[in-house]
Design brief:
The protein has about 180 residues and is of the alpha+beta class. Helices cover about 20% and strands about 45% of the residues. Strands 1, 2, 3, 4, 5, 6, 7, 8, 9, 10, 11, 12 and 13 form a 13-stranded mixed sheet that branches. The radius of gyration is 15 Å and the shape is globular.
């Protein structure tokens, strides 16, 4: 892992997510005004971090139980994966390139994560026709995000779903800037 690996590591950003103990709501909180970095906190205790790549659709999630890799199979196409120790924990496919919709496969569960409106940045998580959670910005002029997903799900799974929404927000921001 020479100097090129070190420079790549420096290009990664951290993600912080704080958990509201009363509602099991996760909140993604950028580390500074320009960062795409977030920390993972639960009841004011740091429980992990997510390092996202600035240039590629990949990230590393560090939790107490271990390290997870979040990445896209191909450089510009393929499924989005959550992997731990070489095992795929979750998989998401994006059936249409220009839509903000993912078909998500978790152990014993098939879900859809999709943008609820073209006019908002809110994503809904659906099991069949029933909405079971959402991911959305905490306000108009903030990059904070609320992750309102079932609290009994593994933290890595909830962060994977947040990461998918984060990627879509980042793509939209880049498209608007060009």
């Amino acid at each position: 892992m020479g100097a090129s690996r070190e420079s790549l590591d420096r290009s990664l950003t951290f993600c912080i997510v704080a958990l509201n103990a009363e509602t099991d709501m996760l909140e993604a909180i950028p580390t500074d005004i320009f960062a795409t970095n977030f920390r993972l906190q639960q009841e004011n205790n740091l429980v992990g971090e997510v390092d996202t790549s600035v240039f590629r659709e990949k990230a590393r999630l560090e939790l107490e139980e271990g390290t997870y890799e979040l990445y896209r199979e191909g450089r510009f196409s393929g499924d989005f994966l959550l992997e731990r120790n070489g095992n795929i924990v979750a998989r998401a496919s994006k059936p249409r390139a220009l839509r903000t919709r993912f078909e998500v496969e978790l152990p014993n569960r098939s879900l859809v994560l999709r943008k609820l409106s073209v006019f908002s940045r809110r994503f809904g998580l659906f099991e069949g026709e029933k909405q079971i959670g959402s991911i959305y910005p905490a306000g108009i002029f903030t990059r904070r995000a609320n992750i309102d997903l079932p609290g009994d799900w593994p933290l890595a799974t909830r962060i994977f779903l947040f990461w998918l929404a984060f990627l879509m927000w980042r793509r939209q921001k880049q498209a608007a800037a060009s």
